[in-house]
Specification:
Distance between the termini: 34 Å
Strand order of the largest sheet: 2-1-3-4-5-11
Largest sheet: 6 strands, parallel
Oligomer: single chain
Number of strands: 12
Number of helices: 11
Helix content: 25-40%
Radius of gyration: 20 Å
Order of helices and strands: HEHEHEHEEHEHEHEHEHEHEEH
Length: 351
């Protein structure tokens, strides 16, 4: 069991990305600070200012936006930066993306993060208009010399979640709830279904896209329909919309129904509880943002490059708390599939 725990734990990444900040208006870097390449007057340690722009899911989405912000907070703590040196601006619609990104850039922040695939084209425009700036993005590929892109092999981690779902479903029906049908979410879907079919081809996968990452009520009604169709386990990749999936599962558990949710991005058992969270497919967005931002202080910003993080890089995987609800024999099977993927013996579909 210790071996399984060790394998399922998602290790520290070796990346290079940058930070984000709080909801108030960011201010220009104070005089006396020289940014990522140097320190304040007097030879103190290097200091940087990193800003982050959320997508419409918001910073409290219990998902990738929140994870990214936690990475920046960790950066602030470990580098002993002034609290105002990490900040975020929250977007309520796509019309906010360019103004929010531009605000950090124009105020000369050392690094500006865009969080989420939906921000890709907007961040590319800001990068092109401000070639001297440094930007980074999660879940999108932006081809620009001043942008570092970080993408995850969600399909690989989701395959493992599919194995768990197939082996633990009592009804032989499981569900997938997606947010917007974009490439990154398709990777979740395709990997999950591949894992289900690999572990038990007789298990049916019900798939629904809600069209939103910020609609818990839609997530709840969608989950209600799936559970009503006989699914007893639902894997969601829908940001804040997924909160509604958990709420529906909680209501049904209270009535004695044996249903589960597989969380996404973060270990969502820490938010929603072990009684309804079977496991979570973790993306280490927090560590990616932290380490790339930290690398900036050492002059390691890699503009124009794309980093892909999968099982081999420990960028994705199942939460270590999986042992609370997933039997040892299932976790052992998960480990066997993981090693086959890492060794290239299994290629998980992503398109």
């Amino acid at each position: 069991m210790k071996k399984v725990l060790s394998v399922l734990s998602v290790a520290t990444l070796s990346l290079s990305l940058v930070l984000a900040g709080c909801g108030s208006k960011p201010e220009a870097q104070p005089q006396g600070q020289t940014g990522a390449s140097g320190g304040a007057a007097g030879g103190s340690a290097p200091t940087i200012k990193v800003g982050m722009v959320t997508d419409v899911g918001g910073v409290n989405d219990n998902s990738f936006n929140q994870s990214a912000w936690e990475g920046l907070q960790k950066l602030q703590t470990e580098l002993n930066l002034p609290k105002d040196n990490v900040n975020f601006l929250q977007s309520t619609s796509d019309a906010d993306y360019v103004p929010n990104l531009t605000q950090f850039v124009k105020d000369k922040w050392d690094l500006t993060w865009g969080i989420g695939f939906l921000m890709g084209d907007h961040l590319k425009k800001v990068a092109k208009d401000n070639p001297e700036s440094k930007l980074a993005i999660i879940d999108a590929e932006v081809e620009a010399p001043n942008v570092e892109s970080v993408l995850f092999k969600e399909h690989e981690g989701s395959f493992l979640a599919g194995v768990v779902a197939a082996k633990m479903s009592k009804t032989k029906k499981v569900g997938f709830v997606g947010g917007v049908e974009i490439p990154v979410i398709k990777r979740f879907e395709l990997g999950f279904e591949a894992g289900v079919k690999a572990a038990d081809p007789s298990v049916q996968v019900i798939k629904v896209y809600t069209g939103a990452f910020d609609k818990p009520d839609v997530g709840k009604s969608t989950a209600s329909q799936m559970y009503g169709q006989g699914a007893d386990i639902i894997f969601h990749a829908s940001g804040g919309t997924g909160d509604g999936v958990f709420n529906e599962a909680k209501d049904r558990k209270a009535k004695g129904q044996d249903v589960w949710v597989i969380g996404v991005d973060k270990d969502q058992s820490l938010t929603f509880g072990d009684e309804i969270t079977l496991t979570s497919m973790v993306k280490r967005v927090d560590e990616a943002v932290f380490l790339v931002s930290k690398d900036l202080t050492e002059g390691k910003f890699e503009g124009g490059k794309i980093k892909w993080l999968g099982l081999a890089e420990d960028g994705v995987g199942l939460a270590s708390t999986s042992t609370k609800n997933v039997p040892e024999d299932v976790l052992k099977l998960v480990e066997e599939y993981k090693q086959k993927i890492v060794k290239g013996e299994i290629t998980v579909p992503d398109k």
